Amino acid sequence: MAGCAARRALAVGSRWWSRSLTGARGLRPLCAAGGVGVFPPAVTTTTRRHLSSRNRPEGKVLETVGVFEVPKQNGKYETGQLFLHSVFGYRGVVLFPWQARLYDRDVASAAPEKVENPAGHGSKEVKGKTHTYYQVLIDARDCPHISQRSQTEAVTFLANHDDSRALYAIPGLDYVSHEDILPYTSTDQVPIQHELFERFLLYDQTKAPPFVARETLRAWQEKNHPWLELSDVHRETTENIRVTVIPFYMGMREAQNSHVYWWRYCIRLENLDSDVVQLRERHWRIFSLSGTLETVRGRGVVGREPVLSKEQPAFQYSSHVSLQASSGHMWGTFRFERPDGSHFDVRIPPFSLESNKDEKTPPSGLHW
């Protein structure tokens, strides 16, 4: 579709929605909590429609923030593209794309070949497929209301000083898969509230989208490329619970006459069924090239035991791991509980921890 028939009005109130979107077609108004209103494709007579006051909670004010565009089936979104996250609901803007290798164990061959894993973890042979992700900024107004996240997403760096365990983060920086982008346009010259928006992007009404990269964004991307780069994504589904893992190498530090290598890993849990389940336990196995194998068990993740339901089907969090070796592997299971009290284990796809970056260039964070 093209033109007016393909555009939908988008409205936002005093706080963000508490429900998720599942795609661009068949969307319904989301207005019960004074959040975003998304009109279904049938509303095509005008390019903009506002939610009626009877749908609005008492004292809540809805404001139009933009007009939906047709999601791209092919090709990439450009720097400056505004979007809604289809799962977590926040507003954001694309900074630049990453071409990742997606290892999806759900589409592995029916007669898989066994491979020898240094961790001793026999598994399917999974071939990576190129998949587009985007580095994005999250609108700060929406961060407090993303209830399906353990915290506002951030990119963490090793601090560039003698404290080998010190980390610092740039909040409101995220990685988003191509299919999670719901693009929209806005007439606002500063449509996203983030401290880096105007430092990275310049409004240019002659361009489409009308936000172009400043030299500061290009310089920051180039200088921090080794520490920002998303290269591998691992995915596996067990009993309709899909686990996606993205590891990031953070660098090496010296501590007590030894080298310590650091990684961050981001995990997204998605309930693809309508049954409610709750995460209760985690069980990790961490293999180091030095020959050590560590087992970690605990309640929940990052201090929470998230419930995955039809209304809130996903949860995402980030954590860190360090090894006294330049590479290793991680794998494990999450234990979930059903409403009847029964439990089942969900596999965490095995993923490598690699340190093939240039150590001569330490991460610079926000410094240019």
Describe this structure in words.
There is one protein chain. The protein is mainly beta. It has a single domain, classed as Sandwich (Immunoglobulin-like). 5% of the residues lie in helices and 42% in strands. The strands form four sheets. Strands 1, 2, 3, 4, 5, 6, 9, 10, 13, 14, 15 and 19 form a twelve-stranded mixed beta sheet that branches. A hairpin with a 2-residue loop joins strand 14 and strand 15. It is globular and about 55 Å long. It starts with 8 loop residues before the first strand and ends in a 15-residue tail after the last strand. The N terminus is likely disordered.
Protein traits:
368 residues, mainly beta, Immunoglobulin-like, 12-stranded mixed β-sheet, 5-stranded antiparallel β-sheet, 42% strand
